[in-house]
Amino acid sequence: MSTTDNLWGEIPSQQEVRAPIVILREQASKLGELTNMSLVGNVQITRDYASISMILRIIVPSLDNYEYDVLKATHEALSYPVKVYDFNDTLATAKSWEPIKCENEVEFIKVVKGILTSETTHKVIASLLAQTKI
User: Fold this and answer.
1) Which of 9, 35, 72, 99 is 20 to 30 A from 87, alpha carbon to alpha carbon?
2) What residue segments make up the domains of the chain, in order of their start?
3) Strand pairing partners for 85?
4) CB 85 within 8 A of CB 62
């Protein structure tokens, strides 16, 4: 038995809020389901001293694993606020390479949905799917 005192106090349990990485991984998985794995979603995670970055990308296995980056989300130790970079610059509120700041899960989902359902993203998906038929 350890005689060391617990200086942490009571550790909080997992929050009910879904973190951005969870939401992006769910959508990456959903893309594979929707396209019968012709297109595969992937979330690449990188980190630096103070922040975590996630890039949601589309991978086309039949095109030698061609990759298309859709969006990037970054946050610090706290999951929110999160900054979203729209690589297609499809949202009317987005200015080229300026992030969209989401204060909470609801705002994040709205922004991600806007990017994923945009005409530009759907054109890219259609084109990539057409190339898998070759």
Assistant:
1) 35
2) 20-132
3) 72
4) no
